[in-house]
Amino acid sequence: GESKSRKRAAPGDNWLPPGWRVEDKIRTSGATAGSVDKYYYEPNTGRKFRSRTEVLYYLEHGTSKRGTKKAE
Question: Which pTM was predicted?
Fold first, then answer.
């Protein structure tokens, strides 16, 4: 029974709201070549997020962490 412990770390980004896109970008050069950057795209605005933390913050507060209240 692994089915019960499905709270936080569900694979496949199930925590994302419907419609969100996730892109894996693999770095091809530099000291960090081979590491993967995950990008999250908000469906309505096309806004790009670089981390799950940013997405969760945005979902909770309706704004990104940048501080200033600029829409675009």
Answer: 0.63
